[in-house]
Design goal:
It contains 20 helices and 12 strands. Strands 2-1-3-4-5 form a 5-stranded parallel β-sheet, with helices on both faces. By secondary structure, the protein is an alpha/beta fold.
């Protein structure tokens, strides 16, 4: 008999080797041949990071880390993986409490074969929960990644993100700068963290948003100052470059950096040298620079706002993170994760997610990307009362961008898709003063696609 769920192993966790062997034997006789037995509770989370189980059978009373604590950890990180508690008679009250936390069932020890098999089948027959990674797809996406645990904070099953993970693994050990492009809220900081974690650098990751820093503030923040550098400089300030020594300095919103500050950053990248304010002693830095922006640096260069030579220096390695609207496969996964997190933090039950909610959200532009989705979920869960979570709680029309297309009234006689698309194109062109490149970015399409659509509009006039 083949295993009912061969792609996802069943984890059996128990510190008693006899119980462990007995439970495994019962399941194998019943035809469940994909089983991972874990005797040390400290190995559970690290094993799950390497391979996601389809079900966890978890002993309640164990040394090192008890079952209740492990259950909370599993529920927080993998909220849809079913967990069945194994407990002795004296622990039944605690097992019931675990079911309130999120356990699917509890089974008394010594384990009854029929009871165990029935409970396991029910857990597995429950099907794949909404938002959970498809086992085969998850394995396919991560089969070529050497250290998938490094990307565990990023929820995705998108092939574009998978390609980014490969690129990150390849360039992480390099000492050269990395330039990360991406709209607001797509997760540029998370990718920066992954690059640092995989770099092998012994120093720490230091992050700073350079937007709004004038030249003096930029120099003081990054390079520091010596006593007496200016009126209020009584004590020395080391600066972030020194704090990130041997590690990584991530400069967010690099597109907003003043031209005078760009010259200083360029020197740092070219020579590795800098001067603290008020000092004439040159210091050398081995800090690796990661820069991120939501702007088109080449467009800024044409406007005289960004140095061409700095772009080249920053972009030795570069990558672009796709917006959420271009990776809609991830929408159910992210929605599920944020709902579970919000439910846990607000001490509310985890609601079912109706298919209609996913369909509605797929039409939302998400100009704020993942950050916007998370805010929407937490707002909805704060007002959630019970049952399946309603699309009405998300107030999607309120969250919609009030820029392009905001003046389109909601009329009972809805326009056709063609009419709506044409209206959006016209509004985008008007909003950008006829700049096709800028309008294409607002609409989330290529400039070539926009040109073709504009040509058709002219032909139809």
């Amino acid at each position: 008999m083949n295993s009912p769920n061969p792609d996802n192993p069943i984890f059996i966790v128990d510190d008693d080797s006899k119980i462990l062997a007995a439970v495994e034997t019962i399941l194998r006789i019943a035809g469940f041949d994909n089983i991972t037995a874990i005797q040390d509770s400290r190995d559970v989370i690290r094993t799950m990071e390497r391979r996601i189980p389809g079900l966890v059978l978890l002993d309640l009373n164990m040394p090192h880390i008890n079952g209740a604590y492990l259950l909370k950890s599993i529920r927080k990180t993998w909220p849809r993986i079913p967990v069945i508690m194994l407990t002795s008679n004296i622990e039944v009250d605690m097992a019931v409490k675990c079911m309130k936390i999120g356990a699917m069932d509890y089974i008394l020890k010594p384990v009854d074969s029929d009871r165990l098999i029935k409970s396991v089948k029910q857990a597995l027959d429950g099907g794949q929960a909404l938002g959970q990674l498809s086992p085969s797809l998850h394995q396919e996406l991560f089969s070529q990644i050497k250290k998938p645990a490094a990307f565990s904070a990023i929820i995705t099953q998108d092939s574009q993100m998978h390609a980014i993970f490969h690129y990150v693994e390849a360039v992480a050990p390099s000492p050269q700068p990395v330039l990360i492009f991406g709209e607001t809220g797509v997760g540029k900081e998370l990718i920066g963290q992954c690059i640092h974690n995989l770099s092998g650098r012994k120093g720490k990751l230091v992050k700073v948003n350079v937007a709004g820093l004038d030249d003096n503030m930029f120099s003081d923040t990054l390079f520091g100052h010596v006593p007496g550098a200016f009126t209020s400089a009584r004590n020395a300030r080391p600066g972030l470059i020194l704090q990130a020594s041997g590690g990584t300095l991530m400069l967010d919103e690099i597109g907003d950096l003043a031209l005078s500050s760009q010259v200083k950053l360029l020197r740092l990248l070219q020579e590795g040298d800098y001067l603290a304010l008020g000092s004439d002693i040159t210091r050398h830095s081995d800090t690796r620079i990661i820069a991120s922006t939501n702007q088109d640096l080449w467009a800024l260069e044409k406007q005289g706002k960004f140095r061409k030579d700095l772009i080249y220096r920053l972009s030795t390695h570069r990558l672009t993170i796709p917006p959420l609207r271009e990776r809609l496969l991830d929408l159910p996964l992210l929605l599920d994760r944020f709902i579970c997190q919000a439910a846990d933090e607000l001490d509310k039950p985890v609601p079912d997610i109706p298919k209609r909610l996913i369909e509605i959200m797929e039409t939302h532009p998400f100009k704020g990307n993942i950050r916007e989705l998370k805010s929407m979920v937490y707002d909805a869960m704060s007002r959630y009362q019970g049952g399946a979570i309603s699309a009405d709680l998300f107030n999607i029309s309120i969250h919609t961008d009030h820029g392009v297309g905001a003046s389109m009234s909601v009329d009972p006689e809805l326009p056709t898709l063609k009419q709506a698309a044409n209206a959006l194109v016209e509004k985008a062109m008007a909003h950008t003063g006829g700049n096709q490149s800028a309008a294409a970015k607002i609409l989330g399409i290529s400039q070539q696609a926009l040109s073709k659509r504009l040509q058709k509009l002219r032909e139809e006039e």
